[in-house]
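S., here's the first fold you wanted:
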Amino acid sequence: MNKLFTLTGLLLFSGILATAQNIQNNPGSNHGNKFEQLGTILPTPNEQRTASGAPGVKYWQQRADYNIKCELDEKNLLLTGSETITYTNNSPDPLTYIWLQLDENEHSTSKNANYQDATKMPALGTTQNLDQLSTRTDNGYGINITKLTDATGKSLKYTVNKTMMRVDLPVALRTGQKLIFNIDWNYKITDRMSVGGRGGYEFFPADGNYLFTMTQWYPRLCVYSDFQGWQNHQFTGRGEFALTFGDFKVQMTVPADHLVGSTGECINYSAVLSPTQLNRYNTAKTATAPVEIQTLAEAKVAETKKSTAKKTWVFNANNVRDFAWTSSRKFIWDAMPQKIEANNNTVMCMSFYGKEAYNLYSKFSTRAVAHTIKTYSDFTIPYPYPVAQSIEAANGMEYPMICFNYGRTDADGTYSESTKNGMLGVIIHEVGHNFFPMIVNSDERQWTWMDEGLNSFVEYLTEELWDNKFPSKKGPAYTIVDYMKLPKDELEPIMTNSENIARFGPNAYSKPATGLNILRETIMGRELFDYAFKEYARRWAFKHPEPADLFRTMEDASGEDLDWFWRGWFYGTDPCDISLDSVKFAKADFPKEIPAARSRMVKIDKPAVNAFEDISKIRNREDKKISFYVDKNTAAQDFYYKYDRGMVTVDTTTATKVEMAMPLEVVPAAEQSKYENKFLYELSFSNKGGLVMPIIVEFTYKDGTKEIDRIPAQIWRHNELKTSKFYVKDKEVESILVDPLRETADIDTSNNTWGGQAKESKFKIYKMKAAGTVRGQSSGANPMQKATGK
């Protein structure tokens, strides 16, 4: 602690003066608000949602339980249903009306939300294109309400506004009270392959059969919450759903030769399955590989016979936010169990798929389902439901315990590696949605990223643990670079309403997933991140979190101040572009004479206030605890060090004589060996992109060895535009590379390198006798930083 690294007086203080004059000439030019707290940007904590990010002591949410009976008319492509809803008001507010979603009205030309996008004349079109662009007549789609009554059979007044229905209550529903009411309805099922949407049918001309995906198919309660009241924003087809938890009992009457997959557990398999099918299902419960309950050969036979008889399948699902199902005679059906050790839950993992997907789905689908719920359980909370299913439907959409995916082979049964990986990615993603948002129940209509972004992040972790070489598209930082470098008028913050996002995929899926991965690998570290992320999932399982609840929990559970990161990555559009502007190089010099003190008069203002592989894959390979599914430095004591601790002082007058008056002596020969063979470097960086991020520096030495220094983002706190770092090295540096593993989504790597052309200078070293006095002004910058190497 008694040695001082210094230069001659003039060089020492030129750094102080230059920095001070720069601040005087460019006030505010180097410091904005990137490290300020989010403050009032986040909602004020209260008794429902605490400042820690946890639900408060007075947190509440509503409940809706459903008893539904429906019938699928395959010949007329019609679904008819009746339901009894029990709605419980747990809020402190008396409700004089309630809101329900009628999502099928999206397909209607007369009842839909009618939020139109700009249209153009197609260069090459079809009559169907023109029908969609020009029709103004009622196309007959949308839900028809045929009866709405209370529990006694008395009619209730209601108003349909596009995709929302308000039911007026004759008496206010007060806190703790239940409302029981009945709805009868029907709608014409749409061809989702031509008109789009998540639910409907697909027709197979080759065998004359249909595959039905019944989603958003029943009138269902909107969310009434503490943070916004009724979430009754219209459904336009993009922003997904805000839904209320409850228990479901659903009876589906379908053609007798159909197989049905559904949210929940079937409670009457003995009535709807053949003895052979039932025996196979029971065998599958303890199998170690998927067991076919309906075989390929049996499915092909079923396609040729169209039964006119009917069967009713009955399913129960508890504590879910939604309910979906599928029905077809085309299905092959297989199943196997997956044990979730953390809660001792055995989950039946199942797949339903047509012959068109057999060679892919029979090999991979159910295994991928099992891998997904196990891996997500490890990263979040233990999977709580009894079933998880993947349905091949040339689609990609999720619901509790069931999801619809794509993955068909070519006509000859072969498939490409890209098709296989695409299928696996979709299955993992859609099954993963069981956790976000089916359990951690965020508002997708408002914040798509809380659903898709968080899920895409854990999807990436799960893909990587399926296969260390899996070609993930969402998660690794380098994959978001092309989006981040777009012009600012083509970008918008992640914190943008779902309906208003222009580049939906990168904004709502990839950028938030990448941000979370950067937090995990580069900023927080795996241990801190994983603990905090699991805490968020645990706190908000089966509840309705908002963005602030995630942001606050991640900080609360980790002890990391991340407001700068949320501000830049989620609320801003600046990219990361860190430039290595210069490298100064010096060798130690031990003069035999002591320099005289030097001084000058300056005008100084008031003091300033002080095949590329990403890192996740590499770390996973190094972690001996991980098995993959597929293949089973002391800083030198400089002048600033002394100044900052009161060992030297400066004056604060406007016109000041600055002089070096530090007592020094020649370093004894015996002490010179400590530094005479050291290599001294100063690296200067600039923040050209605007987004503050950590600086990761890889040194390659002349002997071929490498070393990485990870500098936290807080190095930019006092100057968000420029910064520098001083190093003392034992070996000479051949080259320097910033962000060697492309962890920060740096959009311009051309300014990340240095090739060792710095001219050597002498760094003068003296021994300090005792603390001296320096009169003048300090800018708060390290006085060596501007002087090294001159």
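And the second, which I think is the more interesting of the pair:
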Amino acid sequence: MSPQSPAVPAVPAVPTATYRLQLQPGFPFSAAEKAVPYLASLGVSHLHLSPVLEAAPGSAHGYDVTGHARVREELGGEEGLRSLSRAAREHGMGIVVDIVPNHMGVPVPERLNEALWEVLREGPASPYARWFDIDWEAGGGRLLLPVLGGRPAEELGSLTVKGGVLAYHDHRFPLREGTEHLPLPELLDAQHYRLAWWRLARTELNYRRFFTIADLIGVRVEDPEVFAATHACVLRLLREGVVHGLRVDHPDGLADPGAYLLRLEEESGGAWTVVEKILGPRERLPVSWPVAGTTGYDALHHVDGLFLDPGGLAELSTLYRGFTGAAPDLGGEWGPTVRRAAREVVAHDLAAEVGRLTRTAAAVCEAAPGLALRDHAPWALRTAIEEMLARVPVYRPYVAAGGPVGAEDRAMLEEAAEGARAAFAVTEEAAAVDVVRDLALGQLGDGEAQRDFCARFAQVCAALRAKSEEDTAFYRYAPLLSAAEVGGDPGSPQVAPEEFHAYCARLQRDWPVTGTVLSTHDTKRSADVRAALAVLTECPRRWAELLERVTRETLRASGVEAPDRHVAWVAWQTAYGMGFPYQERLVPALLKAVREAGLRTTWTERDAAYEEAVERFAVAGPGGPPLYTVAEFARGPAGAVRANVLGAALLHLTMPGVPDLYMGTERVYTALVDPDNRRLPDFPPFVRDAPEETAEARREAEAWLPESLSEEKRALTEAALRLRREHPEWFGAAASYEPLRAAGPAAGHCVAYVRSGAVVCVATRLSLRLAEAGGWRETALELPPGRWRDLLGGREAEGSAGLAELLDGWPVALLVRG
């Protein structure tokens, strides 16, 4: 009789912890499957996969979905996903997948998006036309495709026709029946699409896009048939137990996020679902949404903010303004900088979207009694729309035409209108603001134009917020680079312990199984880079002295100066955050930074001479001989960085919510913005399989911190994750969260709490300041009754525990009773 097979552990319905794997052709399902035993040993309960549906060839992220009906063949297809799921289940783990309901990719060649191909062939009459958010009327019945390198007349020689297909370089477009033999100019006019110069996307694009990316076309999932078609594959995988949870990408791009999530909850059978919702500083997730919570950028802000010294941050900001000489609205101050960026983006990059809103508003004025268009001319409506959009302080309001308006949304839009009116001296513009406000509140009836305006105003708000704040102002305002993070508040990034505790208590009460993160595929810098940068708020004067020194060294060694002082500040801070700033990663990061900032060069209007100057400076300065001075400086506060790295990790892994680890972050992980943060993983057992340059890059980048910190971070991660998995009742929906407050002269440097009376977590904050003040001295933490054992250092304690002894050896403690 053969021995009985060991029982396979059940997959928990609610994750205890997830581990994000960024899939790509170089890291498909089969590679992920090899990682399953290792990830199970860490203690995660679910793998969290980037989008798995068919995407543009070679895509390193998968958000450019081209087909919803099948799993991406480049990753191994559905069989590869099923094999990964089986391997995960054998280790008691489930699968959470990222879904992209807001948009699809416009691939090259275009035939790869079959639904879009049919729309290009058949136009508005295509059964797939309802899939896409296209303003056919604005385009004269044609879809504008901004793909040409120049104006159409200049590009005729690059266009060819063969086999019923129009070709332009790698692009392919279908032809209407009977048009193949027409002369080329007539043929172009006869199609359901119009090929246009790429620059016209800003002003004439007649489809909704993802932010300002014309390669991503908006999908109308508010249509039940479109929802069914675009979700059938994922919902089938859920029903069949291949997939167990969902992450919803960018819900703020949808016409009605609340209604979408209700439908998704019904169809998914209540699977654990989180939404990539980025909350403002005082914004709350709508309680009506049937989700577990957000993906966790709000948690990132609260954890990061604990490790910032408010006084040092203020001094650092003063030093930054003095060093750069930046004007208040061009990086000198956060508020004016973000407002200027919003006005630039809404008037320039989002001109097409504002044009559509203006036409819709004019249509309502024409139809509504008492709102004659002559009293609210289109130019006045457009100006009022721009000013209102620029003043909305969060990603979007949630208002449905004819329905009730929440008090917070009403107050926010009323305040935006009040500010917009005050900005106008012209009577017509001021009066138009009231019309725009009422349209945004859905108060001018329930007609189609009013419903369209209400939804579209909110969608444009989200695009504007992302482009003006995350992708512009974050790169212009740079006193502390780590404060310019997704979900953050660069103007006030610090978080007091009391605020952190209040946030955690609210999570435990309202969203106990929400997602929490520190590093993602979208963070500007990984958590460990931000942990290093945070230390600068504890030593701003030493940072200023370093800047003076390396500036002299660079000039003496190479004669090269930074093209401007803002670039110098950003470059040296980036170099310090990296630890060992080798050029292959530093130069792309700086070029991205200056293009996003848009002060001297942009992605679309590049100043080649300026960018060459940036690169020369990066190579001669932070990437040249002075890098050793930076590395020497970095070793000074390395102990404080260690405290920040381990402290942030402990809080993330034990606070309320479900922690999500980005691949490789169980060790020290120093990544900059994409594409750097999408490097192939080199965690075990893949170090030997990764390209040698990948492993070498990691070793160089992290050489400034001892390998022991990576081992400490992994040990902490394993201890916390296994504790969560073995005792989900201590951390889940029925758990409790209680702050613990130290007493003594250094009490403000301790953050501590108890989970469900069974786990005590203690972290050190502002450790440089702590050392300067004489250390913990007689500061003590009153532990709950019982004897406690530290899973990290092995020390036991009870009653009033002196922090000097409790945290001797480790700057953090993870205590369990017993």
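Why I say that: The first helix runs from residue 29 to 42. Confidence is low (pLDDT under 50) at residues 687-703.

Talk tomorrow,
H.
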